[in-house]
Design goal:
The structure is a single chain. The chain is α+β, with helices and mostly antiparallel strands. It is built from four helices and four strands. The chain has a two-stranded antiparallel ribbon with strand order 1-4. A two-stranded antiparallel ribbon has the order 2-3. A hairpin with a 2-residue loop joins β2 and β3 (53-56). It is elongated and about 65 Å long. It starts with 13 loop residues before the first helix and ends in a 7-residue tail after the last helix.
Length: 117
C-alpha cells in the first residue's frame, strides 16, 4: 500500500522518496578543475573521472546529501530534487489511509476484534 510521507519527507510520496533516483546530478564540465574532492566526499560513489573531469556515474545512487556540492570550490556540481510532490488533497487522503492501515495492524496484534464482529 502507498504510505503518506511522514515528518521529514516534506510532502513527497514516501514510496518514491524511499527509492533511489530521487535526485539528478550534473557537473558543469567547464567549471570542474579535476580536483577529485567530490569523489572523496560522495559516500555512494556517484562520480568517476574522465578526461580530467568529474562525471556522475548513475543518478539512481544519489541520496541528495549534497556533500559533493559542499566540497566543490568551483561550484561545478548541481543536485536537482526530482521527487514527485503531492497536492494537499492527495496528502490528506494518503494520511487517512495510512492511519486506517496503522489502526488495522494494531488490532491484529493486540487481539481486538474488528468493528461488526
Amino acid at each position: 500500500m502507498l504510505r503518506c510521507a511522514r515528518s521529514g519527507h516534506g510532502g513527497y510520496w514516501k514510496g518514491f522518496y524511499d527509492t533511489k533516483m530521487a535526485y539528478k546530478v550534473t557537473v558543469e564540465g567547464r567549471r570542474c578543475n579535476g580536483c577529485e574532492e567530490c569523489l572523496e566526499a560522495c559516500t555512494v560513489g556517484m562520480f568517476r573521472m574522465q578526461n580530467g573531469k568529474a562525471l556522475p556515474v548513475e543518478d539512481k545512487e544519489c541520496m541528495g546529501c549534497e556533500s559533493c556540492v559542499g566540497v566543490c570550490d568551483e561550484n561545478a556540481i548541481a543536485i536537482t530534487d526530482t521527487r514527485v510532490a503531492l497536492s494537499n488533497t492527495c496528502q490528506s487522503l494518503l494520511s487517512a489511509l495510512d492511519e486506517m492501515e496503522t489502526e488495522t495492524e494494531s488490532r491484529r496484534t493486540d487481539g481486538r476484534s474488528f468493528p461488526g464482529k
